[in-house]
Amino acid sequence: MRKKLEGNGLWESSRMMLPEHKAAINRHSETLKYRERIQLDEQEWEHVSRAVLESLHRRRPITVRLFHPVELLTVIGIVDRVDELKGRFMVDGEWFPIADIEGASLEEQL
C-alpha cells in the first residue's frame, strides 16, 4: 500500500486551487516579465549622441533601442528634431524621451 505523503502523493490528490492563490501566481508571473532599466555610462551616451546628431544633420536612418518595462522597443527612422529642454527627440513625427534610450546605431548606407 502506498502512503499519501510519499513522492508527490499529497499534491497528486489535491487538484483544487483557491482563486486567491491563482491570482497571486498570475501576479507573480507578470512581475517576472518586467525588464530593468539599463543605465548607460558616459562613453555609451557619447556614442548615442553622435548617432542621433549624425541622423539629424545628415538625414541618415538610425535604430534606437528604448526602455519599456515589458517588451523590447526599437525605433527606426530619421531623427527630425531634438528638444534638449524637454528631454525628447522626434523620429518620423513622433516624440520619444531621451532618458529612455538604451542604445543607438546608424543604419548602413547602400
Brief summary of the model shown:
This protein has 110 residues and is α+β, with helices and mostly antiparallel strands. 33% of the residues lie in helices and 26% in strands.
How do the strands and helices of this protein lay out in sequence?
Elements: H1 9-13, H2 19-32, H3 42-58, E1 62-66, E2 73-77, E3 79-83, E4 88-91, E5 94-97, E6 101-106
Antiparallel strand pairs: 1-2, 1-6, 3-4, 4-5
Index terms:
110 residues; alpha+beta; 6 strands; SH3 type barrels; elongated; three-stranded antiparallel sheet; 3 helices
| Count of helix runs | 3
Percentage of helical residues? Answer: 25-40%
CATH architecture of the domain at 42-106: Roll
Mean pLDDT: 85
Please tell me how large the radius of gyration is: 24 Å
How large a portion of the residues is in β-strands, by DSSP E?
A: 25-35%
Largest sheet entry? 3 strands, antiparallel
Report strand order across the widest sheet.
Answer: 2-1-6
Order of helices and strands: HHHEEEEEE
- Identify the quaternary structure here: single chain
Shape: elongated
> What separation lies between the terminal Cα atoms?
75 Å
Structural class: alpha+beta
CATH topology of the domain at 42-106: SH3 type barrels
Poorly predicted residue ranges = none
E-strand count: 6
Protein name: YolD-like family protein
InterPro entries: YolD (IPR014962)
